[in-house]
Design a protein that fits this description.
The protein is of the alpha+beta class. It is built from four helices and ten strands. 16% of the residues lie in helices and 35% in strands.
């Protein structure tokens, strides 16, 4: 999805490598986690090349590019540091996690280094995924976490404005929500969407028989979000 550039986008970290996937497998928050303040986070972002987020004002476009327009105090985990108490929100259209600093709206400049982002009671991850048979990266809400994940991808499209013409009224620019899509991910592999349960079962490896038995016993329909979460939560408990 093409972004509308209004201001300069942030500069990605020099460690950015397209071929790598997010380092998330086996990650856990433990007692060695070092807590850092918002100022620590702001200083780290400045070192990475912070920059203003690309955005359009409400006067320019109808609708909203955000999951929630208001900033919510949240936390960001990078490596073994947890930066707490940062005002955050998710810009779906730009696929940016934005933060507020000194009345400025900025975007996380090093998403590939981010382990987790917590906005209120929602957790997000920046992860590789397969789109149109190509690997790309983006933010997902984590629905089920562990050795296998169920991830939700939010999407918004942008409707270009059109001028008034004969027998056709003016159409304003508008952000239009697109139905969310569910992805699954195993270990450090890119997330993907599946269409057939039999193909999905292959990814459960030596636990396939147990998972398949549970699937049949519970009569789960993996097209339903609730049932998909039930199956993955079971697998992650094994």
């Amino acid at each position: 999805m093409k972004k509308i550039v209004v201001l300069s986008l942030f500069i990605l970290s020099g460690a950015f490598i397209y071929g790598q996937t997010s380092k998330t497998e086996g990650y856990s928050f433990n007692e060695s986690m070092q807590i850092r303040t918002p100022n620590d986070f702001y200083n780290a972002q400045r070192a990475k090349g912070e920059g203003p987020s690309s955005f359009l004002t409400e006067e320019q476009v109808q609708g909203s590019p955000y999951l929630s327009k208001e900033f919510v105090v949240g936390d960001i985990v990078i490596d073994n540091f947890k930066f707490v108490g940062i005002p955050l929100r998710y810009n779906i259209y730009n696929d940016d996690i934005e933060y507020e600093k000194d009345d400025q709206i900025l975007a996380i400049a090093n998403p590939h280094e981010v382990r987790r982002v917590f906005i209120g009671d929602m957790a997000f991850i920046y992860n590789a995924y397969i789109l149109s048979k190509k690997q790309t990266f983006g933010y997902f809400q984590i629905l089920s976490d562990g050795k296998a994940k169920v991830l939700k991808k939010y999407e918004i499209s942008y409707q270009m404005p059109t001028a008034e013409q004969a027998y056709r009224p003016e159409v304003p620019a508008k952000f239009i929500p697109i139905p969310c899509k569910l992805y699954v991910a195993f270990g450090n592999d890119p997330a993907f969407r599946f269409t057939k349960t039999k193909k999905l079962l292959r990814f459960f490896g030596d636990k396939r028989i147990e998972v398949e038995k549970y699937l049949k016993t519970k009569k789960l329909n993996l097209k339903k979000e609730e049932d998909l979460l039930t199956l993955f939560n079971y697998y992650n408990s094994l």
